[in-house]
Every structure is written in C-alpha cells, then in structure tokens.
Amino acid sequence: MSQDVKDRLKAMVASIGFLVVFLAAWNAFVVAQSGPAADMDPELAALLGPQAKGESALPTPGDVGSEIWGHISNPFYDAGPNDKGVGIQLAYSIFRVLTGFGLAALIAIPLGFLIGMSKLAAQALNPYIQLLKPVSPLAWMPLALYTIKDSEISSIFVIFICSIWPMLLNTIFGVASVRKDWLNVAKTLEVPPLRTAWRVILPAAAPTILTGMRISIGIAWLVIVAAEMLVGGTGIGYFVWNEWNNLSITGVISAIFFIGVVGMILDLMLGQAAKLVAYAE
Amino acid sequence: MNKANKIIKVEGLERSFPSTEGKGETQVFGDVWFDVKEGEFVCLIGHSGCGKTTLLNILAGLDQATSGHVIADGFAVEKPSLDRAVIFQGHALMPWMTVMGNIDFAVSSRWPAWDKEKRRAHCQQFIDMVHLTGSENKKPAQLSGGMKQRVGIARALAIEPKVLLMDEPFSALDALTRGSLQDELLGIIAQRGQTSFMITHDIDEAILLSDRIVLMTNGPEARVCEIVENSLPKERTRSDMHTHPNYYPMRNHLIEFLVNRSKSFREELASASYDPKNPPVVRPAADGDTLNQVAS
Ligand SMILES: Nc1ncnc2c1ncn2[C@@H]1O[C@H](COP(=O)(O)OP(=O)(O)O)[C@@H](O)[C@H]1O
Ligand SMILES: [Mg+2]
C-alpha cells in the first residue's frame, strides 16, 4: 500500500470517528435533558406538550436520521403549497441559483474582459464596482420587488446581483494581469486581437475567472436560502421557514443537511472545472 | 562586407521615459547608430540597466523610439512583424499549451492557410532541430530551463524570420546548460545563415557567437562606445576558441570595456573625436589592435 493511500485511509477513519463522537455527544445531550417529570401539575403538563412527558425539544440523531431518510425516499411528492417534497424545493432553489448565476456569468465575463483590457475603463469603473460590491444582495430585494413585481424573478435578480461582483472583479483582474511576455509573443507573431483574446488572454485568465465563479456560486447558494425565506412560496429557504413555523426542529435540521450537501456539490463541480483550466508555470 | 545587404539599420535612436521625480524626461540611450547585415550575427553588450531590453523592444516593434528610427529590410519599423522573431529573456512559453502547441501557435500565425498536417510536419522539423523529439506533448512546466529555451528557439525559427532578435536568452540558465545551448545555437545559425541580433552581458557568449559586438555604455544617456569586430576565425567552437591567439586580446578588450570604459566613456568622449554615426570600429588581435574608421 502506498503512503498516499494509507494517509487517505487514516483521514477517512478519523472522519468517521469524529462523526461517531459527535452523534454520541448529541444523543447524550438530548437524553440528559429529558429527565423524568412525574410530579407535575397535569394542566401544566398539557400546556407543555411533549416536554412534559420528559422528552427534550431537541430531536435525537435517530429522529433526524429517519426524517432525512423519509425525505430521500420520497423527495418529489406534492401535497399542496405548504407540503412539497424536499427534492421539489431544492430543485426550485437550484433552478433560481443557476439561472441568476448563469445570467451573471454571461454579463460579468465579457464585460470583465473588456474592462480588464483597458486601463482607462478599469480605473473609471472601479469606484462603482467598489461601492456596489459590499451591498448585501438582500438590500436589493425591495427594489427588485417594487420594479419587477414578481417574486420569482426578484429572487433570480438577487442571485444575479450577488453573483456578478466576484466574477466581474476576478475577470478584470485575471485579464489585466496576463503576463506581458505572452502578449508580446502574440504581438510579434502579428496575431489578430480576437485570436489573441481567445488563444492567449482567455486561457491565461481562466483560472482566476473560475475562482471568481466558484466564489459567486457559493455566495448565491448562501443568499438563495435567505431570499426564499423573505419571498416565500417555494424553495429550500421557504421549506426551512415553514418547518420552523411548524415547530419542527427535526425538519429544520434535516433541511440544513440538504442545503449543505447541495452547496458542497455545486462547489465540487466548479472545483473540477477549475482543474480543467489550471496550468502550472 | 560593407557591400552586403543591411537588414537592420538603427539611425539616431533615442528613448526617454518620464523621470521618476515627475519632472522632465530621463534619456535611457540616445544617438545610437549601428546596423546588422544579411547573414551576420551582431551582439550588443552593456551593463544591466543601460537600456538593452528597451532597444531590442524597439527593434521588434514592441516599443516606440522617442526619436530616430529603425529600418528593417528597407522599411521603417512601426509595429511588430513576423519577419522579426524574438526570443525573450524569460522563455515566454504559454504554459497551457504543449511544446507542439506553442510552436504551432507561431506557425499557424505565420501561415494561416496551411492545414494541420502541413503545420505538424513543419513544427516537427524544428522540434527535432532543437533535440526535443519525444517531448512534443509535454507542457512547459514538465521541461527543464534549458529545454524551455530550446522550445523558444524552435518557436522563433519555425516562422523562418529574416532576423532573429534575442534578449539574453540564456541568462537564466546554469553554466553547463548555457554552454551546450550556445553550441547548438551556433550550429543552427551557421547552417541556416540566419541573420541575428543578440543582447548579452556574457563576454564569452559574445566572442563565440558574434561577428561584431556593439558596446553600449552605462545608462542613463547610454551611447554606443564602439563596435568590435571579432578577430577569431569563423570556424570556432566553445572548446577550442580559448586556444586561439586572438582570444585573449578580444576578451581583455571587452572586459576592459565592461569594467572601466563603460563608466568613464563621457571623459573619453571629451578628449577624442567621436562621431555617433560612425562609432570607432576595433579589431583586437594578438598582432596588435587595428582601428578602422570606415565611413559606411
Ligand atoms: N516603461 C518604462 N518606464 C520608465 N522607465 C523605464 C521603462 N522601461 C525601462 N525603463 C528604464 O530604462 C532603463 C533601461 O531598462 P532596460 O532596457 O530593461 O535595461 P537592460 O535590459 O539593459 O537591463 C532602466 O533604468 C529602466 O528603469
Ligand atoms: Mg534586460
């Protein structure tokens, strides 16, 4: 067995170890909280509901596990506006994120390219980008709802706005910092500008652009949950809020799990794409 | 020799940059006159910072002169041209392209109408020439420093330029690699009769490769101090040139320039007659240096 494989095995065993310890501690905590409540006033007990029977308000890992399993085994059921499968809710959120992110990429990358190639444009537009970038994307929500008057498009717009800045800035930076030597090679070979852009500047800047895209999709996935909590209707953010309104902590925790998994997959996909365009100098 | 076709003529070239204090201009070099004839190998020697790279960029068309001009093959240089290939100080290979890809990028720029097969065959010929057969599909990061610069040489020569311009192409390499690359370059250039202009600060490199050596004084306001004709026979190699009686006169003359005269040239100027259009031409040799002030 090679050292590399051994190390990876060790890390895997440690990962599983952490999980076991964490779940055991969680379980012990919940069990300790639910002491016997025998001599309680029956009226108070009725008011307190499950807690009176000596159960904690927090679910055990087993409760959450079976809830998650329940969602996975039937993800796409639709029983009215307040009761849809988690698969449907995630699909809504993913659709919004990918649409907003895709539109942002379509604009940010070509625009960043043009700005990055011209020092004047980069300097002239920099103050605006710096001003707009730190604005929380949710602050755009009222403006979007007021002008667009459609909650679906408004949440896509919010995703668009939050994804555009990292991609724009990274594209500008990536294009502006292409090594002068490579551009000089293209110049001495009398390569026309479009071919230079396509064969030299784009591949040179691609790793930086992809880093921007990866940051963007991460932010978009963070923001969609909050946006859907505000707008309501559909999506994993609305799902979390709905579970909270039903006082189902089990539901909230399993939703957190699904949000994490999807976020991880989105990041992995862009990570793989980044590997494809990476180069070693 | 003087009758030969002059491929490059540098006429009264000056380059100034806005000075760092913000007031006025600092002249890097000025009143530079020299030429490169067809089939000739000319080296330019000078200390770091005297404006060698700036001068080469102007010859390549990548930078503009403040005054004066460069004539290449009868026309004033205004922009880069495929007739003048450049080998850069850092190899300047595109790291996302393979060896073949880098050379093909140049070849397809030169002959856009060629089909892939024809380009491949042409590239292969130059890859073989620099002894990189078998490394066609490697990326630059997988190559040693010497191999990368070999690709740079192949890429520059593959477009069959009229002039090859080189900016200290071997300065980043260790002594052994540099030596073997100099030998290879010498062979390739002799075989092809390639007109070449090279910047260096390595004296032995200049003696081995060049027919004439242009000496540039220290900047700012650098000048061409004189032009040294190589007195060694054309059939020299790196291993045997030291035994020739003219080697040490050549070497000592160049060292004397780099150590002393490059700094004190201004005093030298005041005492002697100096015509920037016809800088003194010197031929250091064992039987005494000859100074030929030929008007060109
Ligand atoms: N773009 C520029 N702006 C201002 N000064 C420059 C610029 N390029 C070069 N210089 C100056 O010109 C001088 C010569 O530079 P360079 O041609 O690189 O020298 P060398 O190649 O001989 O070492 C240096 O002093 C440098 O500071
Ligand atoms: Mg230099």
From TrEMBL, chain A:
Keywords linked to the UniProt accession: Cell inner membrane, Cell membrane, Ion transport, Membrane, Transmembrane, Transmembrane helix, Transport
Chief location: membrane
Subcellular location: Cell inner membrane; Cell membrane
Regions that span the bilayer: 12-32, 94-116, 154-178, 219-241, 247-266
Pfam families assigned: BPD_transp_1
Membrane topology: Multi-pass membrane protein
Biological process annotations from GO: alkanesulfonate transmembrane transport; monoatomic ion transport
An annotated Gene Ontology molecular function: nitrate transmembrane transporter activity
GO cellular component: plasma membrane
Domain ABC transmembrane type-1: residue ranges: 90-270
Functional description taken from the UniProt entry: Probably part of an ABC transporter complex. Probably responsible for the translocation of the substrate across the membrane.
Family to which the UniProt record says this protein belongs: Belongs to the binding-protein-dependent transport system permease family.
Name of protein: Nitrate ABC transporter, permease protein
Record organism: Aliishimia ponticola
Protein's gene: ntrB
TrEMBL record, chain B:
Keywords of this entry: ATP-binding, Cell membrane, Membrane, Nucleotide-binding, Transport
InterPro entries: AAA+_ATPase, ABC_transporter-like_ATP-bd, ABC_transporter-like_CS, ABC_transporter_ATP-bind, NO3_transporter_ATP-bd-like, P-loop_NTPase
A Pfam family it matches: ABC_tran
PROSITE patterns: ABC_TRANSPORTER_1, ABC_TRANSPORTER_2
Region (Disordered): 270-296
Main localisation: membrane
Coiled coil residues, start to end: none
Keyword Nucleotide-binding: yes
Residue ranges of domain ABC transporter in the record: 8-243
MF GO annotations: ATP binding; ATP hydrolysis activity; nitrate transmembrane transporter activity
Gene Ontology CC entries for this record: plasma membrane
Protein location: Cell membrane
Membrane topology: Peripheral membrane protein
Homology family: Belongs to the ABC transporter superfamily.
Name of the protein in its database record: ABC transporter ATP-binding protein
Taxonomic classification: Bacteria, Pseudomonadati, Pseudomonadota, Alphaproteobacteria, Rhodobacterales
